[in-house]
Each structure stands twice: as C-alpha cells, then as structure tokens.
C-alpha cells in the first residue's frame, strides 16, 4: 500500500495526458478540414516571427499597460512550470523536492523567486478581473462576449489564482514541519497562519495543497481545449504559419487565373468541354471547411481579447461587424462540423453554413479592408482573409453583393473604371 | 492646362523613346474632379524635376482593386491581365502612382499574374528625387503651418510605408501634429474595400466623419492625405463640421507643387 499515492498519481497524470491529447487531436483534425495552403516556405523568417511575436510578445506591447500585465502572467507561467517538472518527478517516484538535493542553498533562492512570481500573478489576475468585471472597457462587453465567452474568461482567472494559492500554502505549511529545512520568501510570511498545528496535521495539509495544486494544473490543462485560453499553445504555431507577406497583398485565386488565361487566349477552343476530372471548384468560402487550415488555426488561436474589434473602423462607428466575432463564429462553426463528423462518421449536411447562419451579409459588407484588425492582433490572426473569402463566395457564386457594388463592377467591366465614364476620356485631364 | 506636354506611352513609343517612369494615373486621378488636381500637381512636379515620364492615357484601365475587394476575383484578374498585356507590351519597368490602391495592387498582386515592375507611391518616388537632388523643396507658403497627416491604409498598414510621406512634409518646414491614431494605428477613412462605391451599413456614425474629427482635433490648418479616396472622404468629413473655410484637405503632391509655385 505504500505505493498507493504513486499509483494514483501516475493514473491521474496518464489520464490527464490521454484526455488532453485526445482533445488536441480533435482540434487538429478540425483544423485540417480546411483547404490546403502552402506555408512551408521561409522557415527562418517564420521562426523569427514566432520568437518575436509569440515568445517575445512584441505585438502585446502596443498597449503598454495590458502588455506589461500580460507579460507578468506569461513569464510566471513559463518559469513556474519548471517546478511542475519537479512535482511530476516527486509524484511518480514518491520523492520530496527532488531538485533540492542537487541545488543546495540555491534551491531556496529559486523557489523564493517562483513565489514572488506567484504573488505577481495573483496581483495581476486581480487587476485583470477588475478590468473585465468592474471596469468599463468596451471591448470586453461587446455582444459576442455575452454568456460563455465572458464566463470562460473569469473561470481562467479563478483557476490561476487558486493554483497560486495552493502553491504558496503548500510551502507555508511545510515551513512549520519540525523537520523542515526550507524557508521561502513569501510563504515564510504566511507560515504563521499554519503554526500551532500538530506535525501529522501539517503533513496532511501539505499533501492536500500538493494534490490540489497538481490536480488543478492537470484539470486546467484539460480545460484548455474547450476554452479561449488555448492560445497559450496555439499562439506559437499560429505565428509560425502567419502571413509574412505585405498585408495589402491578397492572394490571387489560381483557378480563376486558369479560366481568365483561357478566355484571353485567342487559340483556345471555345467549345472545349471542361476537364471532367475532379469536383467542380467553388469560388470563395461559404462554410468553415471552405476556408484554409490557416484560417481555422487562427480561429482556435483567438483568445477573444478584442483588440481587433476595438480598432475596427466599422465597429467603432456602430456597425455590426466585429473581427473578433468573425473568428469566434469560424471556430464555433468548425467545432460544430467536427462534432457532426464524430456523430455521423462523415459530415452530414445540417443545413447550416458559416455565411448566413453565423456571419451575416451585413457584417461582411461593412469591412473597409483596412487591416487594422490584422495589425492589432497580438498573435497574428487575420480576420480580413476570412472576410475576403466569404465576399468571393457572395459575389462570384451567389451574386449577392450590394447592388451599388454590382453597378461599380459593371462599370469596371464596361468602361475600365468604377464610374460610368468613357475609357476614351481618361486622358482629358491633360488638356483641361 | 499645362505649359508642357504629357505624352502617352503610345506617342513615346512611336517616336522610339522610352520614359524613365510611367505615371499610373488611376481612375480617380483620371475622372474625379478633385483627384484630377492631384494628378496635375504630380505631373507638374515630374516635369519640374526633369523626369521623363509618360501616361497610358486611354490604354489605362482600372487595376481591379475595387472588384477584388468586392469579392470579384474574376473581374480583378481580367483587368489585371489586360493591364499587364499593355504594360509588358511597352516594356514598362518603373511605375509611380498617386493612388495607394493602384500602388498596392500593381506592386503586390500583379507579379504573380506576370506583371513585375518597380512600383512606387508618389511619396516614395518624390523622396527618391529629393535624395538624388533632382527635386528641391523648401517650405514656401507652408513654412511653420500646423498640419496633420492621414495615413492611407493601403500605403501604411498594407505596405508598411509610414516614413516617405512624413519625410516630404519635413522638407516643407511644416509643424506636423500627429493624430491620436496614426501610423500603424491610423484610422481608415472609410473608403477602402470598395466602400467608396456603396452606402455604409447601419451604424451610429460615418467613419470619415470620425476620422475628420480626429484630424480637426489636432487644430491643423491643413489635413494632408496621400490617396485620392482618403482625400474625398476627409473633405466630406471636414464639411460635415462646416470647417471647410478654415481647414484644407490637400494631397502630398499638391503641397509640394504649391510650395514650389508650380
């Protein structure tokens, strides 16, 4: 029976990793439902972008206060997780503070540093909670944030605080052991709270906090795939696979190029039958799986911070369009498609589509393509790219563009200008 | 209008000549009465600097930008291929344009379709002339005047060019007062993405009115733009506040042409 804790721990750890992998696999499958685009080029540029934007948090700092606060939590997360490694070793082998024996006096200094980070995290989380729940920050209270997204954000903050408290109290209890030979800077000052208890109670309490902490971490890990907080993982691949070209460059559709070249080729046979092989290509995107896998990766990476929406000229002037909602809709729809596939073995038409049931034409046509949302995103998400693909579908497949735009396009087609002027008058300005 | 002639590429070609640069005028610059003034100002500067240039004239067609942004990839590529046929036919190597939308499309979206040129926004090209000493600009009538600059989305965020227009303004000895939202964070004028050609969706304000208000907040006497569409939108926004008597909206090219009394 002396190995019971080890067995329970290994089972818990194994189960947590299993469930997490399973759900990550599910998200990966959903992302790969997207159309293929080639982002295998420029590996060094991509690595540099990932290091700068995700690891280095460069775009977060565009808003210095939020950027700084976020950096505290981010740095704490990265650094304190070194301790999780020790917890796992202790849990599996039944050791206690496995690293202490190798580090000597340095161990207490290191753990003290971790404790200070834990306190900084708690303070930051309180500020974040205040900003979200009491403060009047507009971007946290847009229509798309009602319900689950708002709750999700708070749950994350509560879990983070609970984990930090468990860590600090575990250390504080231990300092009261008669056999204790550790003392850490923060827990030292809260240790008196636990004084006066018997050694056996103290050991029980220490174990309690130890288990709460690790079980909490594993639970949090498994919460990630269901939460906007998944960005802590996907921010890295997302910035790696981000568009590194000029933001104004919109991809040219290769199928259209083929057709246009054929049209302009005087030697082409106008009666030639279209190539029979392969499915008929659809122009643009109507549903989530018509989008590229990068668009879908973007959607799962979005942590709903709303910087895009707060910079969007359409949203700022009261239009329905919100770039954040475009991302959330895309994620919710591809998630729904994934569940549909799980239930039916393959996708069974559910009569719904991204354009229409999630994103309305009114939202779609309010975009000025100004790239403010793309610029604002701290993890290089590109809502504009999705909007443009939906417009491609609306215009080329449905002919549902606003009437004035159809008139403009007719002018371009007939006169080579968006207005009804004659091509022959183009150079009139020279002599006017 | 002009004391000099503006040749078309066809004319130059017929005479066995090739210009140093093609001035891509764009639809707004060709047809819009306000934008034509920008076109003329640019032509004057080019002439004044001794740049050998030509225009396509009736052979120029819409780059396809508004069609592409409105979702019509087909129409965009038709326009692009026709323009590329013409440009390549004349062996064009270098293009300058006063429209950031034309600039972006020619620069970024044409190469894949077979049209590879050195494409510059006029702010970049004029900076080049300054550096080479071919164009000399002094403050003239604008010296000490308080101005603000509106970053066109398709020059700024779309192509990361924020410095060229500001370098030109610096030469004019003006007092540049930046708006609260500028450069990477500049607010759109509301015209991009084919919005110029349609009514805005239902909302509680017009984008161009909000942007013009931001410009007016700086107390600038002149709002400078680098795009004919931004120019129209901001002019309308200034009129919305009935400030058109006090505040002018001018293009970078017009500023230089006026400063040099061209």
What are the defining features of this structure?
heterodimer, A: 432 residues, mainly alpha, Fumarate Reductase Iron-sulfur Protein, Chain B, domain 2, 2 domains, 19 helices, 62% helix, B: 262 residues, alpha/beta, Rossmann fold, four-stranded parallel sheet, 11 helices, globular
Descriptive report:
The complex is a heterodimer of chains A (432) and B (262). In chain A, 62% of the residues lie in helices and 0% in strands. By secondary structure, chain A is mainly alpha-helical. Chain A folds into 2 domains: 4-31 and 63-230; 283-421, Fumarate Reductase Iron-sulfur Protein, Chain B, domain 2. In chain A, helix 6 runs antiparallel to helix 8 and helix 14 packs across helix 18. The radius of gyration of chain A is 28 Å and the shape is elongated. Chain B has helices at residues 9-14, 26-31, 33-48, 65-69, 73-89, 100-109, 122-132, 163-171, 207-217, 228-240, 252-259; strands at residues 21-24, 53-54, 94-97, 118-121, 146-149, 175-176, 222-225, 248-251. Chain B folds into 2 domains: 9-130, Rossmann fold (3-Layer(aba) Sandwich), CATH 3.40.50.1860; 137-259, Rossmann fold. Chain B has 262 residues and is α/β, with parallel strands linked by helices. Chain B has 11 helices and 8 strands. The longest helix of chain B has 17 residues, at 73-89. In chain B, strands 2-1-3-4 form a 4-stranded parallel β-sheet, with helices on both faces. A 4-stranded parallel β-sheet of chain B has the order 6-5-7-8, sandwiched between helices. The radius of gyration of chain B is 18 Å and the shape is globular. The model of chain B has no long low-confidence stretch (mean pLDDT 96). The interface between A and B is large, with 70 and 74 residues.
């Amino acid at each position: 029976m002396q190995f019971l804790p080890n067995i329970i721990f290994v089972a818990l750890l194994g189960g947590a990793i299993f469930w997490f992998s399973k759900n990550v696999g599910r998200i990966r499958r959903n992302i790969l439902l997207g159309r293929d685009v080639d982002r295998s080029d420029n590996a060094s540029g991509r690595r540099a972008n990932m290091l700068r934007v995700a690891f280095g948090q460069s775009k977060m700092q565009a808003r210095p206060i939020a950027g700084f606060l976020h950096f505290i939590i981010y740095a704490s997360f990265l650094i304190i997780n070194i301790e999780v490694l020790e917890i796992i070793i202790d849990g599996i082998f039944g050791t206690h503070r496995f690293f202490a024996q190798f580090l000597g006096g340095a161990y207490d200094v290191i753990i003290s540093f971790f404790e200070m980070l834990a306190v900084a995290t708690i303070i930051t989380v309180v500020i974040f909670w205040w900003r979200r729940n009491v403060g009047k920050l507009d971007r946290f209270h847009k229509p798309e944030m009602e319900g689950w997204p708002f709750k999700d954000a708070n749950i994350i903050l509560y879990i983070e605080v609970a984990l930090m408290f468990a860590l600090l109290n575990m250390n504080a209890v231990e300092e009261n052991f008669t056999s204790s030979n550790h003392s850490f800077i923060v827990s030292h000052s809260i240790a008196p709270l636990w004084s006066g208890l018997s050694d056996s109670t103290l050991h029980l309490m220490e174990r309690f906090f130890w288990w709460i902490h690790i079980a909490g971490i594993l639970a949090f890990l498994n919460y990630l795939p269901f939460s906007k907080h998944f960005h802590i993982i996907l921010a890295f691949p997302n910035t790696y696979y981000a568009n590194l070209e000029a933001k104004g460059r919109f991809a040219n559709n290769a199928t259209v190029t083929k057709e246009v070249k054929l049209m302009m080729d005087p030697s082409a046979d106008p009666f030639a039958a279209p190539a029979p092989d392969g499915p008929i290509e659809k122009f643009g995107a109507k549903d989530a799986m018509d989008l590229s896998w990068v668009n879908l990766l973007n959607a799962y990476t979005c942590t709903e911070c709303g910087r895009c929406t707060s910079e969007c000229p359409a949203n700022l002037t009261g239009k329905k369009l919100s770039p954040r909602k475009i991302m959330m809709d895309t994620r919710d729809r591809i998630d729904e498609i994934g569940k549909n596939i799980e239930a039916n073995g393959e996708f069974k038409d559910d009569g719904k589509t991204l354009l229409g049931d999630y994103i309305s034409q009114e939202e779609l046509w309010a975009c000025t393509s100004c790239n403010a949302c793309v610029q604002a995103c701290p993890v290089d998400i590109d809502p504009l790219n999705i909007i443009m693909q939906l417009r491609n579908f609306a215009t080329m497949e449905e002919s549902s563009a606003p009437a004035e735009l159809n008139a403009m396009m007719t002018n371009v087609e007939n006169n080579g200008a968006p207005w009804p002027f004659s091509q022959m008058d183009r150079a009139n300005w020279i002599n006017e | 209008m002009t004391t000099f002639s503006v040749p078309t590429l066809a004319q130059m070609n017929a005479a066995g000549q090739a210009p140093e640069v093609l001035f891509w005028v764009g639809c707004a610059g060709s047809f819009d009465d306000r934008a034509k003034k920008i076109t003329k100002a640019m032509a004057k500067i080019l002439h004044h600097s001794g740049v050998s240039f030509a225009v396509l004239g009736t052979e120029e067609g819409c780059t396809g930008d508004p069609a592409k942004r409105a979702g019509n990839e087909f129409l965009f590529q038709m326009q692009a291929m026709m323009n590329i046929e013409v440009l390549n036919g004349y062996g064009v190597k270098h293009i300058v344009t006063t429209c950031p939308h034309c600039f972006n499309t020619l620069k970024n979206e044409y190469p894949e379709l077979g049209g590879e040129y050195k494409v510059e926004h006029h702010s970049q090209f004029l900076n080049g002339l300054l550096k080479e000493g071919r164009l000399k600009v002094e403050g003239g009538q604008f010296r000490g005047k308080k101005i603000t600059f509106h970053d066109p989305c398709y020059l700024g965020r779309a192509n990361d060019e924020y410095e060229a227009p500001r370098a030109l303004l610096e030469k004019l000895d003006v007092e540049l007062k930046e708006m609260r939202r500028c450069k990477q964070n500049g607010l759109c004028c509301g015209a991009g993405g084919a919005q110029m050609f349609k009514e805005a969706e239902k909302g509680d304000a017009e984008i161009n009115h909000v942007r013009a208000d931001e410009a007016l907040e700086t107390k600038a006497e002149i709002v400078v733009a680098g795009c004919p569409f931004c120019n129209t939108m901001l002019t309308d926004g200034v009129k919305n506040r009935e400030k058109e008597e006090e505040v002018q909206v001018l293009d970078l090219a017009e500023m230089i042409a006026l400063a040099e009394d061209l």
